[in-house]
Design brief:
It is a single chain. By secondary structure, the protein is mainly alpha-helical. It has one domain. 69% of the residues lie in helices and 10% in strands. The protein is built from six helices and two strands, in the order H-H-E-E-H-H-H-H. Strands 1-2 form a two-stranded antiparallel sheet.
Length: 136
């Protein structure tokens, strides 16, 4: 994990985006408490977690105890371990959807790159997927 590791930087940015998206969704949930109405946002967050975070960690065989600096605002960073970053993103997402069996299953399949992951990706055009992937 070099000082200027591009994958590490991209992972940190993806974690920062996921944290912000989860904050936004949780704020909506506190008002209407309906997970299902927010399913598209939750699926997108799961996709960003899979492609922008988990796949990079797996590809690079990073130790979960390794450091990562997650952007938390303009010129602000939260310095944590990769494991703590996963708690703030992937685990937090799983906790949010745990009370809806249908969403929990679909989010898990996206995170684990199983059946629903492929169904979800097929809902987008190639151009849309390119835009999503370029943003993470």
């Amino acid at each position: 994990m070099g000082l200027f590791n591009n994958d590490l930087n991209k992972t940190a940015i993806a974690m920062g985006k996921v944290i912000k998206l989860l904050d936004d969704v949780q704020e909506k949930l506190s008002w209407d408490n309906d997970l299902y109405e927010n399913k598209e946002a939750l699926y997108l967050i799961a996709y960003v977690c899979r492609v922008g975070i988990l796949e990079r960690i797996e590809k690079n065989n990073w130790f979960l105890t390794g450091p990562i600096s997650i952007p938390s605002g303009i010129f602000k960073f939260k310095k944590v371990t990769i494991a703590q970053g996963l708690m703030l993103t992937v685990i937090r997402l799983r906790e949010i959807v745990q009370n809806d069996v249908f969403l929990e299953s679909n989010v898990a399949e996206i995170l684990e790159r199983e059946r629903f992951f492929h169904e979800y990706v097929s809902m987008f055009t190639d151009e849309q997927m390119k835009q999503i992937n370029n943003s993470i």
